[in-house]
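Recall the central idea of this unit: under ordinary conditions, the amino acid sequence of a chain determines the structure it adopts. In this exercise we apply that idea directly, starting from the sequence alone.
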Amino acid sequence: MKTESIVYAIGGTLFGLLVGWIIGTQQGPIVVPGAAPAAPAAATTAMTQQAAPPATRPALDESQVTPLRNIAERDKKNVESRVHLGDLYFDAGRYTDAIKWYEEAVALSPKDVNVSTDLAIAYYYTEQTEKALKQMAVSLSIDPKHAKTWLNMGVVKAFGKQDLPGAMAAWENVIKLAPGSDDAQAAQRALDNLKAAHPGGVTPVGGTGQAAPAASPAGMIKK
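Accordingly, the structure predicted from this sequence is:
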């Protein structure tokens, strides 16, 4: 299973850049009454680079793929081979191929919250933000207390939807559900930096001073 949050993939640099809080793929800064000034262009560029998927990925290991594919083709109900194939393709940066195998795994094992969230992350990497959020909602219908799903959902809401209040609510949920965990610490850092960047508070999407529309997201979630 590969349900590590984007927070771990992006690393500590992102949290420093969150002080400026400019969505990595949007064309302009978020406009929020009472907010701190926007980060300079250099910080925005750096944040985009940190938020995007890694430029290089390990090569696909065909010695692992071939036997797993043979198993999957032979046994149409074998979930484990499909999940492993999805992981291998994801790690190699071949997200569309990963989606194919994750979707098959989810169809066979619809109650597996980890695979469901893996699929959502792969959707986001292929610029399917709405589909990613819908799949995360499926994950939470399976396990409303799944902290990693909430952590990832917060990032997708922030970066993909420019919904900062929604992101904050998701991260606050992580802290309530898994106090003291690595997930909770990551969520707390994100919240602290967001609040420092916007001491006057954030405005809900659709309200006065909402975030500027984003361009198509490059994708930022790491499995």
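Residues 150 and 173 are 7 Å apart (CA to CA).
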